[in-house]
Amino acid sequence: MKKYETVFISDPDMSDQAREELLERVKGIIDREKGILLNVDEWGLKKLSYEIKKKLRGYYVCLTYGGTGELVTELERNFRLSDFIMKFMTILITEHVTEESLKEEAEQAKEAALEKEAASQEAEEAQEDVEEDNDKAEENEDDQVDAQETETEPTSEPAEESKE
């Protein structure tokens, strides 16, 4: 078994649902060909270096997986048939890997992804707390400014008459 990395660029005008279906189809091909998917890294929408199929932007996805040469051939055949895939490239990362080491690496990648997701959720919650505190502080400042303005407002006293 070998370890591969495939980067493909899909049409930026695809809907999110169509993009998810495309990704599920790719995962299905890897499963069907007895491959082991290690990581799916969606890089997102990026500017292209040059125009491809009259598009200036593309949606990048990087797949890391273990499998055989037949898996790569089948995956690339499907990429060529798809109207949504603009470009793709596959590289061989490691030539000789065991299925057990790939499965272990896949588990570690899943754990790392879960930890990363939990950390990002904690960061979002902390950011929301900071924003709430800032909003409250601004409200208190506004209340204090209003109170000071009402205390220092001059009372309306009759103006002195000029004696001419």
Description:
- The protein has 164 residues and is an alpha+beta fold.
- The chain has helices spanning 16-32, 69-81, 99-152; strands at residues 2-10, 36-52, 55-67, 85-94.
- It has a 4-stranded antiparallel β-sheet with strand order 2-3-1-4.
- The protein starts with a strand and ends in a 12-residue tail after the last helix.
What percent of residues are in strands?
A: 25-35%
Total beta strands: 4
Low-pLDDT stretches are none
Identify the overall geometry: elongated
- What's the gyration radius in Å? 30 Å
Highlighted features:
164 residues; alpha+beta; 51% helix
Topology summary:
Blueprint: E1 2-10, H1 16-32, E2 36-52, E3 55-67, H2 69-81, E4 85-94, H3 99-152
